[in-house]
Amino acid sequence: MPSSQLRPILCVVGARPNFMKIAPIMRAFREEGIPAWLLHTGQHYDEEMNASFFRDLGIPEPDVNLGIGSGTHAQQTADIMRKVEPVMDEQNPAAVLVVGDVNSTIACALVASKKGIPVIHVEAGLRSGDRSMPEEINRVLTDQISDLLFTTERSAADNLVREGIDIERVHFVGNVMIDTLYYNLQSAKPVAETLAEYGLDPRIAHDPAGFALVTLHRPSNVDDPKILGGIVDCLSQISRDLPLIFPIHPRTRGRLESFGLMEKLASNRITCTPPMGYLQLLGIMKESRVVLTDSGGIQEETTALGIPCITLRENTERPITVTEGGNVLVGHDPQRIIAALGEAINHRRGEPMRPEHWDGKASQRIACILRAWLTS
Ligand code: UD1
């Protein structure tokens, strides 16, 4: 069937980690002649959390933006559902494609599935086993109502089968986030340039000890003053030996300010910045001696780059980053964080790892499967 006769796929983004995933998918759809519509829920909206990613990653301007903004989980999910329904009615898409595990993912999947529109989930089957994580609820429920499920690592299919999902609907295609990493690696912004941009001492990039990148935003780490206070003390201690670069997520900044912890971070060994764009953060990450984080995507990116990663969580939905990459899980206990850091910096920089199908071609595999599915 010629492309002009195909109905479009409605592709959904909402929050920062969605943007790196949708960019290569939209590109592959264009190359494969699959018509696509891009819908932005507006879950993230700041320049640093949103527009800078569209620019850096060359994502086309969304065809529609629901502009829902921040709110409680129920408000956010309900607002998206209410506002996306008329768009689906008007567009009558062949399918709705959602990525990842944010509130925009489950909200749009749920509306589509109740309307009988096929749901495609990219990054399906990841499980932390921790139902106190809002993302885990979003993952489990989205997978249950998806018609086609694309996975990033083999363990995901086992999780899906255990939950009663027909394996015929599951396709192991690899990691679209790593497609984006390879595509942009040469364009990453040099660290010294980034520091100069923030009016910071570019010599930090040449400290003989190297430097570490820190990112934190999980409610379990930042919403409790005792836990966040312990992490901040730990970062101060680490920074005596290793300078830190800490782009601060808006949720985290809000908590640091309201708990009166910002002053504790004021040190010329801790470089606090606003959230960074993709090419800036990639430039910092690829030169880091080690990364301390609670992000899911960064666990995968450090694996592909061969950078040791210390994850401030007790579990991960991305086990391949531990078994095949340099990721260790330490929770938020300062002693465990510091012990893991000692290990990481005493070891030589690891080799970049290429787990199966993390080869920059995951989006092409998705487009190829969807082309056949749309025309069958
Ligand atoms: C959301 C996702 C999380 C993802 C993270 C990446 C869910 C359940 N959570 O969490 O999986 O890892 O995004 O950032 O979907 N804010 C701004 N500007 C923005 C966006 C948010 O200032 O552009 C502030 C608002 O005060 C908001 C807070 O950050 O209340 C949290 O934003 P929200 O989208 O609710 O959740 P995240 O913590 O970002």
Give a written overview of the molecule:
This protein has 376 residues and is α/β, with parallel strands linked by helices. It has 2 domains: 3-174 and 358-375, 3-Layer(aba) Sandwich (Rossmann fold), CATH 3.40.50; 186-345, Rossmann fold, CATH 3.40.50.2000. 46% of the residues lie in helices and 13% in strands. It is built from 16 helices and 13 strands. It has helices spanning 16-32, 47-57, 73-91, 103-114, 134-144, 155-162, 176-184, 191-197, 219-222, 225-239, 250-258, 278-287, 296-305, 320-323, 334-346, 362-375; strands spanning 9-13, 36-40, 64-65, 95-99, 119-122, 148-151, 170-172, 212-215, 244-247, 270-273, 290-293, 309-311, 327-329. A 7-stranded parallel beta sheet has the order 3-2-1-4-5-6-7, sandwiched between helices. Helix 1 (16-32) packs parallel to helix 2.
List the helices and strands and how they pair.
Elements lengths: L8 E5 L2 H17 L3 E5 L6 H11 L6 E2 L7 H19 L3 E5 L3 H12 L4 E4 L11 H11 L3 E4 L3 H8 L7 E3 L3 H9 L6 H7 L14 E4 L3 H4 L2 H15 L4 E4 L2 H9 L11 E4 L4 H10 L2 E4 L2 H10 L3 E3 L8 H4 L3 E3 L4 H13 L15 H14 L1
Parallel strand pairs: 1-2, 1-4, 2-3, 4-5, 5-6, 6-7, 8-9, 8-11, 9-10, 11-12, 12-13
The structure holds uridine-diphosphate-N-acetylglucosamine.
